[in-house]
Amino acid sequence: MERLTFYSEESGYTVARLMRPKAKELTTIVGSFANIQPGQTLQLTGFWREHPQYGSQFQVSKYIETKPATLTGIEKYLGSGLIKGVGPVTAKRIVEHFGLTTLDIIENHIERLLEVPGIAHKRVEMIQSAWETQKAIKEVMVFLQGHGVSTTYAVKIYKQYGDSAIAYGTSEADRYCSK
């Protein structure tokens, strides 16, 4: 995703602009997202619609965040503000040091961030905490959507219950899907 145009903390309703593969211009997407930031790579399901004032838009009904696959994508993702403790300058240094293995290093060997000049223990702890939070959000969304809960409802469940949403979502999904 390139640019966040509008995001409602309360409902998760989002208007964003992203670059699609082989497209020459940015595409407008609208829908509900638990947490979305520029630099994220998303796999979207939905449909095209024509808005009378804003033109062609992709209405997202379901999404999955995927890991960026290019150095630029990884750098944008890390420097987007999504991971507390990593801004654009730090993201650039981390990606220059670890290259395409950056996300694997953060996921599985976070202590190796100490190899990057300017990163101390306190910042590594901050990055680890933010990374785990993002991972928890993603797991909850994938779980709820996998149980037939719409993205909009899954966002509401996550906003209400946070990390305990999976426990709540299981019982709610059973109730919601049996209607």
Distance separating the two termini = 35 Å
Structural class by helix and strand composition: alpha+beta
In percent, how much strand structure appears in the residues? Answer: 15-25%
Biggest sheet, strands in spatial order? 1-2-3-5-4
Radius of gyration from the alpha-carbon trace, in angstroms: 17 Å
> How many DSSP-defined strands?
5
SSE topology string: EEEEEHHHHHH
Q: Percent range for helical residues? A: 40-55%
Mean pLDDT: 84
| Tally of DSSP helical segments | 6
Uncertain runs are none
Largest sheet: 5 strands, mixed
Judging from the principal axes of the Cα atoms, what is the shape? globular
Task: Describe the model.
By secondary structure, the chain is an alpha+beta fold. The chain has a domain at 3-66. It has helices at residues 71-78, 88-98, 102-108, 121-146, 151-161, 165-177; strands at residues 3-7, 13-18, 27-32, 41-51, 55-66. The protein has a five-stranded mixed beta sheet with strand order 1-2-3-5-4. A hairpin with a 3-residue loop joins β4 (41-51) and β5. It is globular, with a radius of gyration of 17 Å. The chain starts with a strand and ends with a helix. The model has no long low-confidence stretch (mean pLDDT 84).
